[in-house]
C-alpha cells in the first residue's frame, strides 16, 4: 500500500525522481515494441513508488513525528520506573502533547480539503464533501446487498457480442499527426489527482511528479502506439466497480458499473477525445451533457420558460421525462464507424477510436473477488474519457433520424422556439408536446430509433406531467401511449429540480431546501464529533450546503414567500452548525454578518444576473436565447403569473444608476458583469423584498424551527 499524499512533500518527491533516474529502462523505444516499452516503464514507476511512498505507521509531519518520539521515550522511562510520580506526570504531558499535535494536524487537513474544493464544480464539491464527512458520522450496520459474484459475472457476459471492424476504404486526408510533446504534458498537468488507479495500479500523481526522462519515454510510447495503431494489451483492460445509485441497494439494477482504466490509456483517450471534437464539432444544441459552455441550468431554464409562457397563454402542455435503461452498458457500437465518418472524421482517426473499444477486456470487482475476464462486444465503459463523446454522437444520430421523419420537430429554429421540443442531458430525455397525438407520434419514432442502437426505455422511471391551465377537471391517473400505460404525476424531477403541473412555487423551491437540510445532518454530526472552528464550519456551509439550496434557482421564479422560506431554512441549517463549532465568546449569531452578506437569496440574485449575461452571449439560434425571447400575444383570463423576466427586472432595478442598455453592454464582458452583480453582497437593502426596504424587515421573519423539524421528521 502506498500513500500518494507523501508526494506533496518536496523531499519525498525529489527522492522519488532520483529512484526513477537510477532504475534502468529502454533508451531507444524504436527498437522494441510498444508492449515491451510500456511494461518496462510501468515496472520502473512501480518500483520507484514502492521505495518512496509506502504507508508507514509513524506520523509523517515533523511536529507529530517529534511528539510521537517523545511519547515513546516517556513510555519507556515510565515502564522502567513505575513507582515514580514524576515520570507518570511527564507521560501524561507527552500524551496530551501528542494528542494536541494530531488534533491540530487533523484540523489543518480538514481546512485544506475544503479550500481545495474550489477547483471543482458544484456537483463534484457536494459528492466529495459528502464522501469525506461520512467518515466522521456514527457508523451504523449497513444492510448488505445479497448479490453474489456469479450474478455479476452473468451480467457481465451479457456485454459479449460481435466486434466492430476498421474502416474498409481509407482516406488519409487530412493526415492526422501523432500527439505532440506539449499536448501530452498539458494533459498530464491538467488531469485531476485523487482518482482511483486502474488494473496496473498506477496513479496520476506518479506521472505528475515524474522526472523528464520518464515523461519523454511515456510520450514516445503514446506516439508510437498512435502511429502503428497497436496499443499495449494492458491499455485495453479495465475493472468495473459497482457503485450503488441509492442507499441500501439490494438488486444489481440499483448499481452503476464504473470502469477503472489505466492512467496512461486515459491520457491517450483524452487526446483522442480532443481530436474527435476538433473534427466532428460539438453535439447539436439539444444535448447539454459533456460539452463546453453548456450545463443542466440551460435545460432547466428552457423547460421552465416554456412552461410559464404556455401557462400565461392558457395553452396545454404534455411533458414526458424519459429514462434509458443501462444506456452506456447496452448501446451498440457496430454503427459507430458510419456515424463518425458521416461527421467528417478522417478514417485514420476513426480507426484509432475503434482500436480503443475493439479489443476491450473487462472484469468486475465485487466483495474483493474478481470475476473472469471477458471481451466486451457492446456498450462503452463509463470512466473512459472518450466514452461520453461517443455516446453523444450516437444519440445525435438517433435524434437526427427522428427529426427527419417528424418535420414538426425542429432541432435548429432560427427565429423562435417551437413545440414539440426534445432536450437531452446524456441519457435523460425530456419531450414537450402540445397534444397527446403529437407526443405519441414523437415517442413512437424515438423508441424505434433507440432500438436500432440497442437502447430501450426504462418504463418504470418514465414520468408524465400534464399542465392544463384552463381545465379544472381532475386529471387521469394514467395515459396510454403506443400501447403502454404511463403514470400521470402531479410533479416530476428533472435534472435534480422539481417541475409541477400547477403554479406551485412552494413545492418547486422547498425540494431543494429539504435536500440541503438532510445533507446538513451529516455536517452537524461531524461538527459534534470533531468540534471544528467556526471558520471551517462556515467554509463547509459555503462550499456544500449553500450550493445545494441555490442549485437551479437562478433559472427559477422566486416569489417573496419562496425567498422567506429559503432564508428561514438557511438560518436553521446555519444555526445548527454555529452551535456545534468552536467560536469566540463575543460572537453572536447573525446569518447576514456571519456570511459577509453572501446569503442564499443574494447568491440567487447574483447567479440570475450572471446567467442573464450567459444568455446574451449565446448565438441567436441557441435554445436558451430563444426561450428567453419566447412570448405569446394572447393571454389567458385572470392575472398573469410571475415570470423569470419579472424576477430578473426586480434584480436589475436594485441598481438605480444602470439602465437596460448598460446591462447589455456589461453582459458582453463576463468578469465586469460578475463584479458588478456582486455589489449586491455589500448593500444594506432587504434581501427578501423587491423594494428598497431595510434589513430589519428580514429579521422580523422568524423561522419556525419546531414546526420544520416536525414536518421533516
UniProtKB/TrEMBL annotation:
Database matches in Gene3D superfamilies: 3.30.70.270
Domain Reverse transcriptase residue range list: 224-499
Residues covered by region (Disordered): 677-713
Source organism phylogeny: Eukaryota, Metazoa, Ecdysozoa, Arthropoda, Hexapoda
Coiled-coil positions: 429-456
Protein name in UniProt: Putative reverse transcriptase
A Pfam family hit: RVT_1
UniProt key word Cytoplasm: no
InterPro entries: DNA/RNA_pol_sf, Rev_trsase/Diguanyl_cyclase, RT_dom
Keywords of the record: Coiled coil, Nucleotidyltransferase, RNA-directed DNA polymerase, Transferase
Residue ranges with Basic residues bias: 703-713
GO MF terms held by the record: RNA-directed DNA polymerase activity
Amino acid at each position: 500500500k502506498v500513500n500518494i499524499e507523501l508526494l506533496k512533500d518536496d523531499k519525498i518527491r525529489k527522492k522519488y525522481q532520483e529512484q526513477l533516474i537510477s532504475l534502468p529502462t529502454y533508451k531507444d523505444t524504436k527498437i522494441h515494441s510498444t508492449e515491451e516499452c510500456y511494461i518496462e516503464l510501468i515496472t520502473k514507476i512501480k518500483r520507484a513508488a514502492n521505495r518512496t511512498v509506502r504507508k508507514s505507521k509513524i506520523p509523517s509531519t515533523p511536529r507529530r513525528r517529534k511528539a510521537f518520539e517523545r511519547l515513546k521515550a516517556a513510555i519507556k522511562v515510565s515502564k522502567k520506573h513505575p513507582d515514580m510520580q514524576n515520570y507518570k506526570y511527564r507521560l501524561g504531558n507527552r500524551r496530551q502533547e501528542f494528542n494536541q499535535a494530531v488534533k491540530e494536524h487533523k484540523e489543518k487537513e480538514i481546512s485544506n480539503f475544503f479550500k481545495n474544493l474550489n477547483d471543482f464544480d458544484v456537483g463534484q464539491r457536494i459528492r466529495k464533501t459528502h464522501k469525506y464527512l461520512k467518515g466522521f458520522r456514527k457508523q451504523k450496520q449497513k444492510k448488505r446487498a445479497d448479490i453474489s459474484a456469479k450474478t455479476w459475472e452473468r451480467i457481465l457476459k451479457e456485454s459479449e457480442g460481435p466486434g466492430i471492424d476498421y474502416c474498409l476504404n481509407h482516406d488519409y486526408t487530412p493526415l492526422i499527426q501523432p500527439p505532440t510533446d506539449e499536448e501530452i504534458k498539458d494533459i498530464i498537468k491538467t488531469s485531476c489527482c485523487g482518482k482511483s488507479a486502474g488494473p496496473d495500479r498506477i496513479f496520476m500523481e506518479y506521472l505528475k511528479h515524474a522526472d523528464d526522462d520518464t515523461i519523454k519515454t511515456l510520450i514516445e510510447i503514446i506516439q508510437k502506439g498512435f502511429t502503428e495503431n497497436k496499443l499495449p494489451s494492458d491499455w485495453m483492460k479495465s475493472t468495473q466497480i459497482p457503485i450503488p445509485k441509492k442507499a441500501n441497494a439490494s438488486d444489481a439494477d440499483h448499481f452503476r458499473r464504473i470502469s477503472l482504466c489505466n492512467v496512461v490509456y486515459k491520457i491517450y483517450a483524452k487526446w483522442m477525445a480532443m481530436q474527435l471534437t476538433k473534427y466532428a464539432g460539438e453535439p447539436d444544441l439539444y444535448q447539454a451533457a459533456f460539452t463546453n459552455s453548456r450545463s443542466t441550468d440551460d435545460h432547466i431554464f428552457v423547460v421552465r420558460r416554456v412552461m410559464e409562457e404556455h401557462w400565461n397563454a392558457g395553452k396545454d402542455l404534455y411533458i414526458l421525462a424519459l429514462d434509458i435503461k443501462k444506456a452506456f452498458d447496452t448501446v451498440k457500437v457496430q454503427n459507430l464507424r458510419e456515424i463518425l465518418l458521416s461527421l467528417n472524421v478522417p478514417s485514420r482517426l476513426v480507426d484509432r477510436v475503434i482500436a480503443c473499444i475493439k479489443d476491450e477486456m473487462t472484469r468486475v470487482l465485487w466483495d474483493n473477488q474478481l470475476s473472469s475476464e471477458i471481451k466486451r462486444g457492446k456498450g462503452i465503459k463509463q470512466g473512459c474519457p472518450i466514452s461520453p463523446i461517443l455516446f453523444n454522437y450516437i444519440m445525435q444520430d438517433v435524434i437526427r433520424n427522428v427529426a427527419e421523419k417528424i418535420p414538426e420537430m425542429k432541432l435548429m429554429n432560427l427565429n423562435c422556439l417551437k413545440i414539440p421540443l426534445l432536450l437531452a442531458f446524456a441519457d435523460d430525455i425530456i419531450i414537450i408536446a402540445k397534444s397527446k397525438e403529437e407526443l405519441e407520434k414523437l415517442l413512437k419514432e424515438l423508441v424505434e430509433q433507440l432500438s436500432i442502437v440497442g437502447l430501450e426505455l426504462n418504463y418504470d422511471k418514465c414520468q408524465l406531467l400534464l399542465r392544463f391551465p384552463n381545465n379544472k377537471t381532475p386529471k387521469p391517473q394514467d395515459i396510454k401511449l403506443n400501447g403502454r400505460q404511463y403514470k400521470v404525476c402531479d410533479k416530476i424531477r428533472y435534472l435534480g429540480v422539481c417541475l409541477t403541473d400547477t403554479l406551485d412555487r412552494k413545492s418547486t423551491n422547498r425540494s431543494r431546501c429539504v435536500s440541503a437540510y438532510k445533507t446538513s445532518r451529516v455536517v452537524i454530526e461531524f461538527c459534534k464529533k470533531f468540534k471544528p472552528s467556526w471558520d471551517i464550519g462556515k467554509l463547509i456551509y459555503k462550499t456544500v450546503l449553500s450550493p445545494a439550496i441555490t442549485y437551479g434557482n437562478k433559472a427559477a421564479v422566486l416569489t417573496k414567500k419562496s425567498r422567506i422560506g429559503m432564508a428561514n431554512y438557511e438560518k436553521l441549517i446555519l444555526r445548527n452548525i454555529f452551535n456545534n463549532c468552536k467560536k469566540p465568546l463575543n460572537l453572536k449569531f447573525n446569518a447576514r454578518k456571519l456570511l459577509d452578506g453572501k446569503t442564499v437569496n443574494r447568491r440567487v440574485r447574483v447567479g440570475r444576473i450572471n446567467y442573464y449575461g450567459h444568455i446574451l452571449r449565446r448565438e441567436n439560434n441557441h435554445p436558451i436565447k430563444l426561450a428567453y425571447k419566447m412570448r405569446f400575444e394572447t393571454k389567458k383570463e385572470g392575472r398573469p403569473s410571475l415570470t423569470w423576466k419579472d424576477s430578473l427586472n426586480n434584480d436589475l432595478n436594485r441598481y438605480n444608476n444602470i439602465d437596460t442598455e448598460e446591462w447589455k453592454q456589461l453582459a458582453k464582458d463576463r468578469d465586469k458583469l460578475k463584479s458588478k452583480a456582486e455589489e449586491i453582497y455589500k448593500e444594506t437593502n432587504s434581501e427578501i423584498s423587491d423594494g428598497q426596504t431595510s434589513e430589519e424587515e428580514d429579521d422580523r421573519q422568524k423561522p419556525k424551527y419546531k414546526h420544520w423539524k416536525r414536518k421533516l421528521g
